Each structure stands twice: as C-alpha cells, then as structure tokens.
Amino acid sequence: MLQVEQLHVTYGEVTALWSATFDVREGEIAALVGANGAGKTTTLKAISGLLPARGGAITLQGARLDGLPPPEIVARGVVHVPEGRKLFPGMTVRDNLLMGGYARSARPHQGARLEQVFEIFPRLRERSRQVAGTLSGGEQQMVAIGRGLMAGPRVLMMDEPSLGLAPIMVDEMFRIIQEINHSGVTVLLVEQNTEHALAIAHRAFVLESGRVVLSGTGAELLASPQVREAYLGM
Amino acid sequence: METFAQAVVSGVLTGTLYAMIGIGLTIVFGVMRIINIAHGEMVMLGMFGAYWGQTLWKLDPFLSLLLWTPLMFLAGVLVYRLLVRPILGGGELNTLLYTAGLSLLVANVALLLWSGDYRTISLSYGATPLRPLGLSVAAPLAIAFAVALGLTGALWAFLARTNLGRAIRATSQNAEAAVLMGVDVERVALVTFGLGTALAGAAGVLLAPSLYLYPTVGELLIVKCFVVVVLGGLGSVPGAIAGGLLLGVVESLGAVYVSAAYKDGIGFALFLAVLLYRPSGLFGVGR
Amino acid sequence: MPLLEVERLTRHFGGLRAVGDLSFTVREGEILALIGPNGAGKTTVFNLVTGFVRPSAGDVRLDGASVIGLRPHAVARRGIARTFQIVKPFPGLTVRENATLAAFLRHHARRDAEAAAVAVLERVGLGARADRLASSLTLVDQKRLELAKALATEPRLVLLDEPMGGLNPSEVDVAAELVKSIRQRGVTVVLVEHVMKAVMRVSDRVVVLHHGEKIADGAPSEVVKDPAVIAAYFGKRAA
Amino acid sequence: MRRALPWVVGVAAALAPLALGDPFLLHVCILVLMWTLLGAAWNVLGGFAGQVSFGHAALFGVGAYATMILYLKLGVAPWWGILLGGALAAAASLPVGLVCFRLRGPYFSLATLAVAELFRLLALNWESLTNGPVGFLITALPQIAPFGHPVDWESKATFYVMAALLAAGALAATAWLKRSRLGAYLVAVREDEDAAEAVGIDTVRAKSVTLALSAFLAGLGGGFYALYFRYIDPDAVLQIGLSIEMVFIAVVGGLGTVGGPLVGALFLTVLGETMRHRLQVGHLVVYGAFMMLVIRFMPEGLWGRAHRLFVAVQARRSKHAALGG
Questions:
Q1: Domain B2-277: top CATH class
Q2: Cys-Cys crosslink for D237: which of A15, A76, D18, D61, Cβ 3.0 to 4.6 Å?
Q3: Could you report the per-residue pLDDT of D203-243, keeping only the tens digit for each?
Q4: What are phi and psi of C138, to 5 degrees?
Q5: What pTM did the predictor assign?
Q6: Nearest C-alpha of chain A: how many angstroms from C215?
Q7: B208 vs B225: CA distance, rounded Å
Q8: Chain B contact present for A128, CB below 8 A
Q9: Domains of chain C with bracketed CATH
C-alpha cells in the first residue's frame, strides 16, 4: 500500500537517512524500530512532506507522494501523529480534535468522527472542554491519536506513542493501536519500546544509522540477536 | 469612591479599544512571529478614514466603519503579499527594523498629504455625556466601547467556532503540527495579517471622535500596544484583552491618584517590570 | 581525588524531573560515556555541569571546588569545555576566527591566540580549511570545529555532546580516533553518544541514565549485559 | 604612496566645506558629521554586538540635558559639558543595561523603547531639574581664545571643526573596537550568545562595556546638539524618532562596519536635507523607504556592499597579476 524506496533525506548538510526501503501492506501494523538517531522520525517526516526527499521515492498505491505539499498528503489519507504529541496546548480537547479534521476532505465528517473518537477514548469526552496543555501525558497522547483519526486516515503513522507514559498507560496505548488497526486502519508504528512494538506488529523493519538493516515478522525480529546488536552495539 | 468608580469605568472603556488594537498585533505575531511596528499607523489610517469620511462625504464616523474595515482588511492582505512576505525568512530583528521603516514611511506620507495639524471630529451627539448610575461617560467613547465589544466578540467567535479561526489559533500554537493537520500556513498568514490590519483600522475609526488625530499618532499608540501585548503574553488573544483592560484601568487610576503627567509612565514601568519578571506575560502559559 | 564529582544533582522543569539525584565521578585521564534512551536527561546533565542551567539541588565539583552558580564563561575559565549536540559555530566568521575566539580565554594577545587556534585546528584536521566561513563547512567539519573551539579553551575536562551523531560509519571511525587523541594529550573526556559501536570502542567506563537517574555504571562490556540497561533501551512487555 | 592616497583625499574632502564657506553647505556637513557620530554610537552596540536598541534617544538626551544644565545652572564650560554629558550618559546606561540585557532579541528592543519613553516623561515632568516642556535656551556662549585665537561662536566653521573631531573620534573608536579582543567578543555575542559563553566569554560584561561606550558617544552627540542648536526640550532630544534615525543610519550604511555610519549619514542626511529644503517634511519618507529597500535587497548596507565588491575586484585583480607574472 505504502511503498518507500531508497529514501534519502538530509537536514541541510546532515544526512539523517541514507537509503531506506520498506513497504506497508494494507490492513497491517508495520513497525519501524531502531536506536536513537537511526532515522525513524526522519522517515515519517519525509513521508508526511515535512522534510523533502533528496532521493528515492514514496508511493501510496502506486501514486507518488514525495514532492506533494503536506496538506495534499493528509488529504490522500496519510496521517502523521508526531513524536511528543505536538498538541495545540492552549486549545480545548474538542478544538484539537476538530483541527485533526481540518483537511477539506475530512470536514464534512467532523461530527461523526468526533463521535467515533469519543467512543474509542471515552476519557476525552469527559475532558472535551478542558485545555489540552493541562491534560496528563496519557490523555495528551489520546488526543494526539484521536486528532490523527479525525482526518479519516488510510495509513496512520505514529511516532513514539508510548514515550514518557506510565507503564500501565503504555499497555493501554498498545491495546488501542491494535483496536484502531482492527477497525481497518493501516498503521506504521515507530517505537523505542521495541519489545512491545514487535509483539503487536505484523511486520517490522530495523533501521540503523539511516539504513534498513533487517526486516521480518515481529516475532522473527523479537527472537533475533541482531536486533539487540543494533541497539546496544555489542 | 465615586472618583474611583469613574476612573475604573473610563479605564475599561479606553482599555477595550487598546485591547482591540493589541489583538491585531498579537495574532499577527502568533502566526508569523513578526512584531509589526507599523501596526500603529494602521490605527492612524483608520482615524483619518473616519475624519475624511465625515469631512468630505458627511459620513457618520461610526457608520464609516462598514466601509473602512473591509478596506483595511484588503490593505493588510496587500501589505502582506507585496511587502512583508518577501522578508519573512530574514530573522526577527530584520523584520522588526523593516516594519519600523514601513511605519516611518506611512506616517510621513500621511504627514506630507495631511500636514501635522491636530484635528478633531465633532459629533452632534457628542456634546452631552451619558450619565449611567451617576457616572459621566462621553457618548462617542461609549459607542466606541459598545462597537469594540461587538467586534471583539465577533472575532472571538470566529477564532473559536470556525475551521479557519481554529487553524489560525493552531498555527500560532504549533505551526508544524498545524501543517500535519493539512493547514495551508501561507493562506492562514495572509488572512491573519488582513484581520490584524482590519482590527487596527476599525479601532482607529472608533477612536477618532475621542482623540486628537495627527499623522504621527501611531507612534504613541504602538508603544501602548506593545505594553498591552507584552502584559498579556505575545501571541495570546485573551492575554491582549486582559492586557488592554489592565493598561486602560492602570492609566486611568494613575491619572487620578498619582499624577496625570506620569500616567503614561506608569504603563511603561509596569511594562518593564513584566518584561523582567514574566517575559511570557502576566497570563502567559510560559515559553 | 576524582577530577569531577557530580553529587545528588537534581533538576525539575515544571513538574517534570529531568535529572534526579544523580551522582557519578570522572577520574582524571579517562573517557567516560554517558548513555541512555531519548529523554534520559543526558544533555541536561551537560547543561547543569557547565552552568547553562541551574540545578534544583545537588553539587558539581571540579578538583573539589564547586562550580554550581557560576555562569558558563566562568565554568569554561575553570577548565570545563563543552560542545553542543546541535553544533553552534559562529557562522559568519572563518574557521580560524572561530577557534581564535576560544583561544582568547588563555591568550590575551591576538597573535598568541591565533597561533594557538591554528595549532588546534591542525590537530583536529581543519588546518586546510582555516580560512573558510564556518557556515560553509560540511557537518563532519562543523563537528570538528565544535571540538576545536572546546579544545582551544585549553580545558582539563571536555564534555562532548553527540560528537558522532549524523556521521556516516567511516566518519564515525575518524571521530572516534580523534576523541582518543584528545585523551592522549591529557584532557579528560565525557561524551554523550548514541552511536553505540563508537561508545563501546572509545570509552573506559559507561554511565547509563534512564528517566534522569543512574541505572548502571561500569565497563562497557558489563553495562550492555545489565538487565536494567537492556530493559531501558528495549522496553519491557508487561506479561 | 598608494596607502596615503585615501587619507589625502579624506583630509581634502574634510577641508573643502571650510574653504567654500557656504553656510548651508556647512550646516548640512555639520549634520552629516553629527549623525555619523550618532550612527557610530548605535552601530557599536547594534552592529557589532547585535543588540538592537530603540532607546538611544535617552542616552542622546542625557548628554544634551547634562551639557545644558551644567552650563546654565553651574557655569561649567560647554566643551567640558559635552564630555561630562558623554560620561553621564555612560553612567546612566549601566542600570539600563542591567535591566534590558536580561532580555534577548525583540524583547530587548521593546524594553529599550520603554526605557526611552520613561526618560522622556521624566524630562517632561521633573521641572525643577529640566524646566519641563519649556526646555533650555542658551543665549550666550563664553568667550575663549585657545592658542590666542578667539572662538567665533556665530560661525558655522567652529561647529564644523568640532563635529569633525567628534565624528573622527567615534570612527577611530569603532576602528579600534573592530581590531580589539572586545570587538571579537561582540561579534561572538552577535552570532551566538550561548556559544560565546561556552568558550569563556563573559557576555554580560562585554555587552555592558559596549553599551557604556555606545552611550558615551551618543551622549557626546547630545551635548554637541545642545551647543549647536542652543535649544533643547524633551520633544527635540528625547523622542523615539531620534532613536529610529540612529538605527537607520547604521543599517543603511552597513551594520558592524567602520565606515558605514559615515556613508549612511552622508547619504540619508544629504537626501533628507534636500527633501526638507523642497518639501519640508519629506525626509523621513525617504528614510523609511530606504530602510525597507536596504533590508530587502541589501541587508549588508551600502558600505558593506561596496566593501564586498571592492574586495572581490581586488581579489580578481591580484589573481590576474599572479597569472600574468
């Protein structure tokens, strides 16, 4: 469904991604794992158009995405839930969610999708008038994911959804990601919590120093000693 | 006690207009990170708009709002497209100096066209003050207050309830996240600059019957406007409203209880104290 | 006596505890690596030691004398230099001018400072590019310049914040050699680094941070086997 | 011989207005030199250290008021008054710096603006010291005869020489600064304050010393203004417009260059005075327009651009020479 081929990305002089090749199949959870600085976030930013691709190609069902402006990529259903949540801290939960449905294609569905998000996260319904900056970390992450769902994504890309959450919230978050996936949304997951991510992923790719060095099913990678090496440099 | 109430009331009336000007400056800063020094000149243009409307076409100043507000919106859009956008990437200080140049240019072209004379607008209904609850309130200021309240309310509703309004707030809180939501930040900036300018112009029209008008009046107004937005926290709309009211009341009380001469000074001292101890503003959420 | 002693260092940002009750020491002449997952508080430790951020509690001593409360320039004068993760060259100046500014700390005459700066630039391999504008350098060279500026202040201890981040594998090898050469000249090194292979190769000792606290301290080969470290890097699946 | 040429041309150009003796020409030249001094004063802080002040009128005003008050109330000769005015402005700048340097970027600029307005209000209302809005007027200057020559206070030539000395002094101070260690520190502060601290530069001290130098020069300018125009009031010497004009001269001439303020002052003053002569108020229109054009198309300023072109031409020439030889 989503195909990334030999993607090369730089920040000015800094090469963050040398050559990443992987694909995400319709209906699956694909995980992108690797140590800090391996290029995971960069990959997502390039797919959503925040960073220009210096080389390679990104396609969604055969149609090129690279080079399109970010609003157009959102309109095509590729939605990015950024690392660190990046909420609009001074706006209410409800307004944050409505912003998620800002894309022209999503606007007619704002009301219905808001209901869906509240079904998945009943907590957010209670807090819908609260200012987002005052929520707990877990609630903020729910808003971030809910905001992504408001766009009606075909592929939902989530960057470190478990980062900074209490252990019990981490479990809850991974359960919710699976639930979203079961409802028919394809998920591309970037996680530092490798063990957990690999456990729920259908397939996974290991990035190391800006390259995909290993791929396989989640279970295969979980068992692989190479994964540990990529992290700990043993 | 009565003097106190009187001072607070007139402070609130003036403060509402300060707030309106401040909102214009603060939303532009929020979205584009520009401190637009020429904002005071936009107020000045509104004032002269009201003046010429009355002098040339016998147009009631408050009615002329319907003409000048949309025109100032357009002017803002043009200024943004032609003058401001090309230098946006140039760093905070360059944009500050650039808008200072624009401010000087506009004020002095006005000086050239209209001379430096102090002018006033007299209204047939301006002579007798209103007397609610035993207080004395100048009629033009009362009308200006009511209209400003209405316009600010309308703007608030626009920002709170519409997709575009939400997009403006979202962009000023986190531009990158707004892009991820599919917001066309360029368009938001254009609309915001137009809105900010329209607010300044409308405030000018409203202020015209209550103040002396002269081409360099913007200088005084912009300094007050800085006080207002810094008090409330640069980029925050509720902050600008609170800052405007606070400055209006502090000035008004200062004039009564300290000294009319140091009225402006009290505002600036407050400003410096806030910059030093709470640079994100009295009500800012922190930077 | 250890060269640097960090004692019960704590720093809160709002409600968040970035560094909590952290103690470790650095011995003269060693290379110590400070590692840990994203957000573990490593850069904050550097900011606390060098005076860019004030601690909420705790102490940092260089040769037994506290450096807490000193502004960054005074810390540099005491002999602790640092580099920044996001390199901070003076972009509009040449490489030579960049290094000379740092050398002014120990050499007041411009001629002496320039001579010292050029010597440092030679050591880090930037001698040939001394007259280029700092902004025109490649990332590898900007990292070298960052190092040159730190060394030109003639420190006893240098803190390197991700000297190898963003470099390709062969560049990482060169950088690793450079770090070792610093120590050979008698300067003690503390580095924060994500490139684990390099950390394993150059460091004598590793301190692992997680959520602002120290979870391991020891030789590199031992630390990577520590279950707490593996869990921190890997995440733990609740059963 | 070649090296001496610019100096010869410079001295000749400086003497020419004296030889021609036309009062209007001399008046314009005096203004150019006064604005060179003020532009240089601002440039030291704004151009070298990157601290954009919108409040230099306050320092100018302190110098002007000090000179006037010392002369009219205490009988201190005004040439000493000018120097003391500079010193007082420098002293006044220290607490200002203490407050404003805690802020960075545009916040610093806004704070200086507020400080300047406070100074203006103080001058307007502290009537026992400043005469309030009435201001001060000098009716007669004392008779002196240095080196046996009685000074003619009615002649513009006298003021021309004074202004030339002051402006030359300011440019010399700038040239010294550019080569000094402090100058190098300021450039570091301008480029990146954190990086400057990290290599051991005491940025607060560097900025404060520079502000004091800048204030001293601005104070001299204020004192000279008082002496030349013989009249000051808060609107004349403490208005925001003065601060902005100083900024413009430095920016149009070229930030952080030695010759920039002279070029900026020459260009803007001559253009402005010509306009004023014809249109009365037009000169600030030109200032504003030029400011925008320069920032948009030539952010390095007139002098900066000319200097760069000159260096490029020289480089090409020496390359040719090397190839040919």
A1: mainly alpha
A2: D61
A3: 999 999 999 999 999 999 999 999 999 898 888 888 888 89
A4: -75, 170
A5: 0.84
A6: 15
A7: 17
A8: no
A9: 1-79+155-165+173-239 (3.40.50.300), 86-147 (no CATH)
